[in-house]
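Researcher: Going back to the complex we discussed earlier. I've cleaned up the inputs and rechecked each line, so this should be the final set. Can you rerun the prediction on the complete assembly and write out the structure?
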Amino acid sequence: MILEALAFIVLGAVAVFTALASLLVRELVHTILWVATFFVALAGLYFLLSAPFLGVLQLGVYAGAVTILLLFGVMVTRKRIFAREAATGIGPAPLALALLVTVVLATAAAAVPAATTQVHGYAVALLSAALFNDYGAWLLLLGLVMLPALAGAIYLVREGRD
Amino acid sequence: MTAFPLAGLVGLSAVLLGVGLFGMLTRRNFILLLISIEIAMNAAILDFVVFAAYWGPGYGLRGQSAAVVLVGLAATEVAVGLAIVLALNRARGSINVTESATLRL
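Model: Rerun complete. Updated structure for the full complex:
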């Protein structure tokens, strides 16, 4: 029990730290390494929350595919991979707005039951039955979004566009 | 059955959304902008998974299904975003968003 509470705290702290670090370091490649760690920390949280399918999905899609795509984006857009970003000042207004949103949301989060509750886990078979029967429309909608999105991506990068 | 801190995890999600918003408002590099959006989307997905673990099978399965669909949406968004990065880089030689005043490439 105490070990699980410790794991939640450690993974949460790692997630917040790596998210901040990924936005504050000045080398883009380091950013991507930090954000990969962030994705892995979230996958750990999903495993702790008895959502193993989502944990695996997070590892495969985010820590795997998205990280590689972002690295690919860095690779093709700069001549020297380890070039530093120019320092951009952080204005007070964006910082204040982000802090305000965080405080408002955290206050709302304080309204949910504070005590630790029991995790409800679901078998993957149950999840897939729900996903393909009850919520099949969502999956269909996702496919309908993905197809034009990927066609649009190919259109954007095709050669010989005027 | 393990226990988990509901309020703590919802608070974590709120903080992560704040971090993503902060990145969206302050960073100028398009790839960093994409990463900020990903962090904010992950905060939302974390919320779905947390509440799925909180509720019983009915709402719980709905929450996890929504999380699966959201992961797919976020991946699609990265693919389109990187296509825009490549097109911007080819057209302007830079992926700094402050240098792009028009949507036309």
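Model: Worth noting: The longest helix of chain B spans residues 57-92.
Researcher: Good, that matches what I expected from the previous run.
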